[in-house]
Amino acid sequence: MSKRHYLEFEHPIAELEGKIEELRYVQNESAVDISDEIDRLSQKSLHLAKDIYSNLTPWQVTQIARHPQRPYTLDYVNELFTDFHELHGDRSFADDLSIVGGLARFNGQACMVLGHQKGRDTKERAARNFGMSRPEGYRKALRLMKLAEKFKLPVFTFVDTPGAYPGVGAEERGQSEAIGRNIFEMAQLEVPIITTIIGEGGSGGALAISVADQVLMMQFAVYSVISPEGCASILWKTAERASDAAEALGITAHRLKALGVIDKIVNEPVGGAHRDHKQACATLKRALNDAMRQVADLKPKELLQQRYERLQSYGRFTDTKER
Fold first, then answer.
1. What are phi and psi of 131, to 5 degrees?
2. pLDDT of 41-84, one tens digit each?
3. Fold adopted by 62-312
């Protein structure tokens, strides 16, 4: 991986790790043994990271969810699945690169896997439209899910998008219809669906591939009806109050687990998944195994009934009628 990118609130960690790198350079270039000092500073850096990451605000969690070095869908696919064969196009208009998917095997079992894909560099980000899908992306996803249903294959989806692309062309080609159609079809798909929120879960762009039997969420991912900046722009007419909006929206994994919107929080390595892709993938694989065991033996009728009850259980209200 390229040079580590530090967020603003990680500056104390950056300074400490910078000193560690300097000492390692000195040790390599001279005969002086300073390994004890390096170990001491490494332990101090680890404890500092634990302290910082145990007291994050929702806005800081949002920044981590958007970290440019976080593992993306294809990173997880390459680590968790075997025999992946990517499938392209919606058979109607185009192949949207912001959503990737195809046939694969999970622990030897055939399955369909798909998800949003952001880019690592400027060229790839532009090609994948920063993970913001157009209608053809969602129609490709639906085509793959219907193919999975035809061959009775479980579906794994990975969500990581700021939201569906709001451009004129996307609206002309039926963006809202494509999202609504996916939600409708996924609600009655007769195969298990397991969704993982791996980064940003933004609005309808996320919902279009996250109607599932089990919804997992990475510890430092976010999932909301609108981005904090978008919410702040509407409520306070300025995106500068995004941190206030993030607090009010309740977008973090622990908040959503308490509300019953997600089923399981997948713990990340100290400092976030971007600091250790291998460990993040290993933890997620165990969680996916557990989720799969819970739905693998259900008959289609039982699967659909449980999915319906799950969707109907969302929401809370308080009866304020005077007695």
1. 80, 10
2. 888 888 998 999 999 999 999 999 999 999 999 999 999 999 99
3. 2-enoyl-CoA Hydratase; Chain A, domain 1 (3.90.226)
